[in-house]
Amino acid sequence: MTTSRIPQLLRQHQAALLDAWVKAQQAALTLRRDLLSDADLRIQSSDFLRSLTEACQSGDLGDIQGPAWAEVREFLSGVSGSRASQGFSPAETATFVFSLKQPLFSLLRREVAEPAALVEETWTATVLLDNLGLHTVDAFQKSRESIITRQQQELLELSTPVVQLWTGVLALPLIGTLDSARTHVVMESLLQAIVDTGASLAIIDITGVPTVDTLVAQHLMKAVAAARLMGAECVISGIRPQIAQTIVHLGVEMGSVLTKAKLSDALALAFQRLGLAVAKAPGRA
Amino acid sequence: MEVRRIEALPIRSSDDVVRVRRQAHNWASELGFSPVDLTKLVTAASEIARNTLEHGGGGSARVEEVRRGVRVGVRLTFEDQGPGIADIAQAMRDGFSTRRGMGLGLGGAKRLVDEFEIASQAGAGTKITMTRWK
Lengths: 285, 134
Hints:
heterodimer, A: 285 residues, alpha/beta, Transcription Regulator spoIIAA, 63% helix, 9% strand, B: 134 residues, alpha+beta, 4 helices, globular
């Protein structure tokens, strides 16, 4: 195989190629002007072209996994990561690399006269840019996945706040779907909070739980039983009319569990148990 | 009975149970189900979808919007190739559970919908069809 002229051409015509490429990207329908300014686009394109040119001088054009390409790969991963978090689609992100094809092919057509050599050079350039484009998609996918994983972990932490409403009174506002993994975390943090605060009453509020089926009901009853073993009474509040009717039809017996329609009712009950009374301050309207 | 639209969903994990529930919820609320009817349908879907997953070892669900005369409703079909149910009458009875559940799932789901059909044979899987009308 003859030595490719691409490295030399890239170095010679870098500035002109950059202009043509940026122009092509700006004309493309996939450009997201709402997410990326023209100045940033030019900087990104220029940086990429520079590191691509450098890598071509020393590296093998057919294998972008080599050490000479490390900088290019890293740069593309960075671009993918930032575009993934900005809300670009994978196609829009990969287009960044693929859009270089047209200006690069034009350059080759101008500079390489001999037909057989031109075909050869065009093929080399295609394979190279395809590989770099695929690398971009891979990197995009990876950064998306890491965003999702992080969000899942954040959700799990978010989902279990145990709050102290008053000395001796805890509240656990449950929100969303109660699957087994979450219930486990919820129950653990409730029992720990009972130990930590010495609470005698815990209010589990299910206003934010959309579906209460037998599994959820069973989880709730277990939480109540466990809290009771630790010396704390549980009240389940936030039972909406449709949930109440559904529980009755299901045949779930909530017999021994204290329930209230609203969280405020449960708090009033807690005050009553603690022998507290809420009164209006004298002299205020 | 006329079927207006169909959505088929796999049941392989507990995320799929949530997906089936959401699909039933969306269509029922588009049809204008009252909050109580909506909650009953979704809860029944949840029970049976979880049975499909836990007892049937996974399977598939079909959510359909149906019409009979002037009535509209949502029909749910759950199928699995699991071990099946040897004694359906016993399985439907409240308080009977092969696992450590409450034993209210099947009977409870039947009480939450208008039409409930179960077909099962030991070793040949289970098929449950239920419909709730608006």
